[in-house]
Amino acid sequence: MKIVLSGIRPTGHLHLGNYFGAVRNFVKLQDEYKCFYFIADYHSLTTHPKPEHLQENIRTVLSEYLACGLDPDKATIYIQSDVEEVAELYLLMNMNAYVGELERTTTFKEKVRKQPNNVNAGLLTYAVLMASDILIHHADYVPVGKDQEQHLEMTRRFARRFNNIYDVDYFKEPQPFNFFGKDLVKVPGLDGSGKMGKSEGNAINLTDEPEVIRKKVMKAVTDAGPKEPNSPMSEPIQNLFSILELVSTPDTVEHFRDEYNKATIRYVDLKRQLAEDIIKFTQPFREKYQQIYNDLDYLRKVRKMGKEKAKESASKTVKEVREIIGFKDF
Length: 330
Ligand code: ADP
Ligand code: TRP
What we know:
2 domains, Rossmann fold, binds tryptophan, 5 strands, binds adenosine-5'-diphosphate, 55% helix, 6% strand, 3-stranded parallel sheet, Tyrosyl-Transfer RNA Synthetase, two-stranded parallel ribbon, 14 helices
């Protein structure tokens, strides 16, 4: 059976970008594939979180995974740092990753710009740790959003390089995967341009209360409005429509497109509808989340189950890699 794997860093609540870019794929795929879904807490150390925040965010994201419909009986759901084998594979893979190629990674260059006072080596080798996450379970498919495409390309390169250096056919080359369409998804933010993201401060979280959602949507950037019928659409308006397409019915989308094309649209109506449809879409999720978050016994049980299953597969890989590399008994 093909193997699916993905992870998300625990840096806060999941937002609509995380959901439509990644998590809804996780849910869909768990019925048909052998799936590994984890919380990338080692990765989140690159931004130096306080221990209590880290702990809290891990609990939050685990509860959110479960509230979204991930099923611990179908998929292996685990915390990255519970599987120390990942750290060993990361050490070994680092020996075959070149500083030049790591420095050229888009996400690394972005971080250098965003946190110039904390350009740590973990940021530089972020892609090596991500490759280790993926290769340790021999994943075939990795459901992620568009922003992670380059990391997957690097994972394939590291896999090929390892096979070449040791003259083996050991690691597979994992492919990005989107169950719902050909391309990977990029959900835009509400601030006119760019993607929705936690660090961008433009995200609507799955757990946001209705009033918060209304406020965020009503503040979304728009333009002066179409001057005449069939005017081209500016980026901020295209972005509102992109989100509308994800949460509203086709009829609603068509209605507002018509209004736009006739140049009779009132953005305030569009925003009101968008806010209500986001609220409706996220409601079941909000309710489940609170209940799961408060059930620590259940969360502990899920964590333990995932850890055991993930360790089994990870320790086998690390044992084999050690042998390939030449770490053997006399
Ligand atoms: P953030 O950018 O908010 O920090 P992460 O980098 O933790 O989010 O992303 C976790 C997962 O969600 C990744 O698979 C990523 O590709 C996906 N993702 C995040 N933001 C978006 C977005 N705006 N559109 C599509 N996918 C996204
Ligand atoms: N880099 C991913 C992100 O920021 C998180 C991640 C870490 C990941 N390891 C992974 C995603 C392995 C897929 C597979 O969203």
